[in-house]
Task: inverse folding
């Protein structure tokens, strides 16, 4: 439609702007979490994450004067810096919470009894008085200052190494990995053999079986929870990794078979029939011809299954259990939201730790993911 | 044994066992049971070929039967029995009890709302994004960003959106985006997640945010599949861009829109994580899947829990039937 005379420029601009708005609306939420995970808890609770990106003027918490006193003529003097190691610049300051912006930087505040306090724009202060400061309560300084953006990796160190702060996020990470990888790999081969039979072998009941697979695609796994838990208990698997792997395998199979069969049906008939004429067995045809040719479909399913098992909460809760030892990342996050709902630095960081692996998989293998979606958009 | 080692071992056993099973069962069939030699060679080959598909299918069918088909009937049975009476048959008592609970009807009401709002909005936004990004140079980049939430877990998305809905007391700086905008426009800070009935819609936004990318990807492929000639003909006939979109393009991709819509509907019916993580069904945000989880694993009332699972199954059934009919049509 770019060739409609006279409409091109305005329309194109409108399109560019609308797309930009859409993209921003979709990226902003995640960006907020990402930025927050690099801020200290003070920063998070004192300003919105969007403020972290620019130099900000804000009222800082009061800082009490401290330091060793020196003698200057007949005065006792304490000198020091309020902001060590940061580029903060003071725009106003005061000595009481009632008047936190009473003085401009460089001005001297008269504290009475000959005591005086001066604060420079960079945060250097000088407190002087006729008597020794020893044993006295030193004044607090309230500042309104603009600070450049400041980010920290402390949250990540905290969450990944400390058991209390992250409540075992590192452990949960390992658990999730332990659930996801076998649960991704095991269904592939089982499904591939079945898909080959459904695509290229002739037998009575084939159409019926394909229909059954399509039907099972949409069966809610909610129905399977209690019966399977009973079954697992009855055969002695109980709650544990084996149970989760089996459950994920079972739940993933319909999609796997459906995707792979649709792909295999499209493979050129000549190759398979030639191989049959040349005396290859079905097993050889499958291993040497079909499997290598189906790689794109196998990759698509593997990505789906990995994302699904990594992100799953329900199956892990039910078949693995809710103990601290066995909780996966998603379960951990739900607990954190309950117990530390206010501690955004921990929550944001933990959430990002759980999101980062799927995001990497997503961005590096998007091509396969899209192809898989297009082939099997039924689930 | 460390679970990770156990995992590795399971992979080896699982994959090795699979290959071993397929290989040896085929060898057994060809060499022992019906060898293609001797006086009956021809008949033996035919017989072997009749059995072979089932060798290939057996593990998958067994797993499907055990993990998906059997539970449907087992749950149906559970919903008709009472666990406290040792599993005695109680007829429809569980269903009657469920129907008498306000929470159930609240969940049903909310689910119906979810079923309408989420697929509609996701499909609409997806269609919009697909149409707009198709025409510009950085369209693929834009698409991949809109598609990204697809990779994020429902729980992760809940954390992301809970930060947006965060509330601070009046007078202090708002750190939640929604309240910051709201206060910026002159409103008072709101506890969004407790605000009936808007809180349900705020939860729906999370799912719409996740599902739009999916709708966009599928619909974008469908839009590209529209034959050029139909559009060119419309342009020559003087159709405006709006007319081209709604009268030429949309009707041609209607079947894809329906597929997207039903697929998202299925996701909605099973939505559980978002509600559990954000409100746990409080403040009138309950949905069926979370209600069921509550009954099964908090009240340990398997009867009513299974009954509500059957309600979800019942709601899925029309889509199931429709999908099967379509799949059979395609195969012919």
Result:
């Amino acid at each position: 439609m770019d060739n409609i005379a006279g409409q091109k420029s305005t329309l194109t601009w409108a399109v560019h702007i609308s797309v930009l708005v859409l993209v921003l609306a979709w990226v902003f939420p995640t960006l907020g979490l990402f930025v927050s995970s690099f801020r200290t808890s003070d920063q998070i609770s004192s300003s919105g994450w969007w403020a972290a990106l620019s130099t900000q003027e804000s009222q800082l918490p009061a800082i009490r004067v401290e330091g060793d006193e020196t003698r200057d003529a007949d005065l006792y003097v304490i000198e020091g810096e309020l902001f060590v190691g940061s580029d903060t610049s003071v725009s106003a300051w005061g000595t009481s919470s009632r008047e936190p912006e009473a003085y401009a930087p460089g001005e001297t505040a008269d504290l009475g009894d000959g005591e005086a306090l001066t604060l420079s724009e960079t945060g250097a202060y000088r407190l002087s008085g006729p008597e020794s400061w020893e044993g006295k309560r030193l004044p607090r300084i309230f500042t309104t200052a603009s600070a450049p953006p400041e980010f920290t990796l402390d949250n990540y160190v905290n969450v990944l190494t400390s058991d209390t702060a992250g409540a075992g996020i590192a452990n949960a990470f390992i658990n999730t990995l332990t659930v996801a990888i076998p649960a991704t790999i095991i269904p592939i081969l089982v499904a591939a053999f079945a898909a080959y039979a459904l695509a290229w072998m002739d037998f009575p009941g084939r159409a019926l079986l394909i229909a059954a697979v399509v039907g099972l695609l949409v069966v809610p796994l909610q129905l399977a929870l209690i019966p399977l838990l009973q079954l697992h208990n009855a055969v002695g698997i109980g709650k544990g990794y084996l149970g989760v792997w089996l459950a994920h395998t079972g739940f993933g199979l319909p999609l796997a078979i459906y995707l792979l069969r649709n792909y295999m049906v499209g493979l050129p008939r000549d190759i398979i029939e030639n191989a049959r004429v040349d005396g290859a067995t079905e097993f050889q045809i499958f291993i040497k011809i079909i499997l290598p040719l189906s790689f794109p479909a196998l990759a698509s399913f593997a990505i789906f299954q990995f994302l699904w098992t990594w992100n799953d909460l329900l199956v892990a809760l039910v078949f693995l259990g809710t103990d601290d030892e066995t909780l996966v990342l998603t379960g951990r996050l739900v607990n954190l939201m309950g117990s530390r709902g206010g501690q955004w630095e921990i929550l944001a960081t933990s959430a990002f730790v759980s999101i980062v692996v799927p995001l990497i998989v997503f961005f590096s293998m998007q091509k396969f993911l899209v192809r898989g979606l297009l082939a099997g958009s039924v689930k | 044994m460390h679970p990770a080692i156990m995992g590795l071992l399971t992979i080896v056993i699982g994959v090795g066992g699979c290959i071993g099973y397929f290989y040896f069962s085929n060898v057994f069939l060809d060499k022992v049971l019906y060898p293609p030699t001797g006086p009956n060679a021809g008949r033996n080959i035919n017989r072997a070929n009749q059995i072979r598909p089932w060798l290939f299918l057996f593990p998958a069918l067994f797993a499907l039967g055990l993990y998906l088909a059997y539970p449907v009937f087992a749950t149906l049975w559970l919903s008709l029995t009472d666990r406290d009476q040792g599993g005695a048959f109680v007829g429809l008592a569980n269903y009657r009890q469920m129907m008498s609970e306000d929470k159930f009807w609240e969940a049903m009401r909310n689910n119906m709302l979810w079923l309408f709002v989420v697929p509609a909005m996701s499909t609409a936004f997806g269609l919009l994004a697909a149409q707009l990004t198709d025409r510009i140079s950085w369209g693929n980049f834009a698409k991949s960003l809109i598609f990204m939430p697809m990779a994020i877990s429902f729980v992760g998305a809940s954390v992301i959106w809970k930060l947006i809905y965060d509330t601070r007391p009046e007078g202090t700086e708002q750190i939640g985006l929604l309240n910051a905008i709201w206060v910026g426009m002159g409103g008072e800070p709101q506890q969004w997640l407790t605000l009936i009935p808007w809180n349900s819609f705020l939860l729906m936004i999370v799912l719409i945010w996740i599902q739009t990318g999916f709708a966009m990807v599928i619909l974008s492929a469908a839009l590209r599949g529209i034959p050029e000639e139909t559009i060119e003909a419309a342009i020559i006939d003087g159709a405006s861009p709006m007319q081209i979109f709604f009268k030429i393009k949309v009707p041609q991709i209607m079947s894809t829109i329906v597929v997207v819509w039903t697929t998202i509907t299925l996701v909605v019916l099973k939505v559980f994580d978002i509600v559990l993580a954000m409100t746990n069904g409080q403040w009138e945000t309950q949905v069926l899947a979370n209600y069921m989880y509550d009954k099964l694993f908090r009240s340990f009332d398997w009867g009513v829990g299974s009954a509500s699972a059957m309600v979800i199954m019942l709601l899925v059934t029309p889509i199931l039937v429709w999908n099967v009919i379509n799949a059979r049509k395609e195969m012919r």
